Amino acid sequence: ANAWVRRYRIRANGRIEQPALDALAKGVTIDGVVYKPIRASLDQTRGANVWITASITEGKNREIRKVMEHLGLTVNRLIRTAFGPFQLGGLETGAVEEVPSKQLKEQLGAKTCEALGI
């Protein structure tokens, strides 16, 4: 595990106001599971849905979906837009793109790369 930020665009059914999302910055406990702080911002409301941008550092199983459900929202679209320093941009679903060794060394550090044989 690492502490890289994972950034998501979320479309969810329901209504929410920014103060409820701001409260996630303190972390939240749901059914005894403690989730680390989440930075979230309400981007827009469209019809019955809201669009939210969220950043997490943990990535527990279905974390985004569970936290949004806790807030009364049902996630109907979840798009990861970045993983740490890597912007996913227009990468197609299921597609794989090799990260150049030089960039990996810059991001992971020489010691980690040496241990991984990179």
Describe this structure as you would to a colleague.
The protein has 118 residues and is of the alpha+beta class. It has one domain (6-89, 97-116): Alpha-Beta Plaits (2-Layer Sandwich). Helices cover 24% and strands 36% of the residues. The chain has four helices and seven strands; from the N terminus they run E-H-E-E-E-E-H-E-E-H-H. It has helices at 18-22, 63-70, 101-108, 110-116; strands at 6-13, 28-30, 33-35, 39-46, 49-56, 74-83, 86-87. The strands form two sheets. The chain has a five-stranded antiparallel β-sheet. A hairpin with a 2-residue loop joins strand 4 (39-46) and strand 5. It starts with 5 loop residues before the first strand and ends with a helix. The mean pLDDT is 89.
- CATH class descriptor name: Alpha Beta
Number of domains: 1
Overall body shape: globular
Strand order of the largest sheet: 4-5-1-6-7
Beta percentage is 35-45%
What's the helix-strand series?
EHEEEEHEEHH
**How helical, in percent, are the residues?**
10-25%
Instruction: Write down the Rg.
Output: 16 Å
CATH homologous superfamily designation = Alpha-L RNA-binding motif
Terminus-to-terminus distance? 18 Å
Instruction: Just name the CATH architecture.
Output: 2-Layer Sandwich
The total count of strands amounts to 7
Main sheet record: 5 strands, antiparallel
Average pLDDT taken over every residue: 89
Under CATH, the topology can be stated as Alpha-Beta Plaits
